[in-house]
Amino acid sequence: xxxxxxxxxxxxxxxxxxxxxxxxxxxxxxxxxxxxxxxxxxxxxxxxxxxxxxxxxxxxxxxxxxxxxxxxxxxxxxxxxxxxxxxxxxxxxxxxxxxxxxxxxxxxxxx
Amino acid sequence: xxxxxxxxxxxxxxxxxxxxxxxxxxxxxxxxxxxxxxxxxxxxxxxxxxxxxxxxxxxxxxxxxxxxxxxxxxxxxxxxxxxxxxxxxxxxxxxxxxxxxxxxxxxxxxxxxx
Lengths: 111, 114
What we know:
The complex is a heterodimer of chains A (111) and B (114). Chain A has strands at residues 4-7, 10-14, 19-25, 32-38, 44-51, 56-59, 62-67, 72-77, 86-93, 99-101, 105-110. With 111 residues, chain A is an all-beta fold. In chain A, strands 2, 4, 5, 9, 10 and 11 form a six-stranded mixed beta sheet that branches. In chain A, strands 1-3-8-7-6 form a five-stranded antiparallel beta sheet, with no helix packed on it. Chain A is globular. In chain A, 40% of the residues are buried. Chain B is 0% helix and 62% strand. Chain B is globular. Chain A binds chain B through residues 4, 6, 31-32, 34, 36, 41-46, 49, 51, 89, 91, 93, 97-104, and chain B through 1, 31, 33, 35, 40-45, 48, 58-59, 90, 92, 94, 99-108.
């Protein structure tokens, strides 16, 4: 059974610092891995999707890496801003399109 | 938001009563999903659908049933609500953009079972 773990559960950084969020999974037979953002009381917004054959994806200040063999992904957010405060979730997709989520990392960026 | 709406957005009900949550999409996507989100657990898949009248169980399906009689609507029913079903429920669709398949989520329904 696939298990997805996100460490740390919460993170607080001053504005301008780079954020590093970690995600690990136990079964490397994944179709892809996604990073989502969730604001309080809201739904999820997809940030980046990495196919199983890819090593990384970039979008603006966001960069996500994937090491499938070791079961790890890292989301980097450069030069953090208070607007980056949210919960970040990673999810792995199996070949049937079903997602298995981690519990998330709650990020607070202080001005 | 991929044209996904959920109703109701908030509901308070009593133990033992039936509850139906509705997910509606406007873009004719084939795959639809119901998740629940609880503190410390992230999102967990309840049921999913891969077409009209085609549904299957997810990780936490006990106590829930679903129906999909039209492409645009996916209903989640709690036959007899229990306090352990107090949660936030999210509907999602799967959409292909180029070579990538991404899930898009609705705004969620907050359910409180007293």
